[in-house]
Amino acid sequence: MTVLDFIIEPLQYEFMVRAILTTTIAAVVCAVLSCWLVLTGWSLMGDAVSHAVLPGVVLAYLIGAPFALGALVFGFLAVVLIGAIRDTSRVKEDAAIGIVFTTLFALGLVLISVVPSQTDLTHIVFGNILGVSDADLMQIGILAALAFVVLIVKRRDLTLYAFDPTHAHAIGLSPRKLGALLLGLLALTSVVALQVVGVILVVAMLIIPGATAYLLTDRFGRMLIIAPALSAVCSVTGIMVSYWMDASSGGLVILVQGIAFALAYLFSPRQGLLARSLVRRSRSRRAARRSLRSGGAAPEPLPFTRDS
Amino acid sequence: MTAAIDVRNVTVRYGDVLALDDAILQVDAGRVTGLIGMNGSGKSTLFKSIMGAVRPESGTVRIGGLPPAAARASGGVAYVPQSEDVDWAFPVSVGDVVMMGRYGRLGITRRAGSADRRAVEDALERVELTDLSDRQIGSLSGGQKKRAFVARCIAQDAETLLLDEPFAGVDQRSEATIVRLLRELAGAGRTVLVSTHDLHALPDLADEAALLLRRVLFHGTVREALATERLAQAFGLESPMSSEAGDEK
Question: What is the ipTM of this complex?
Answer without folding.
Answer: 0.89
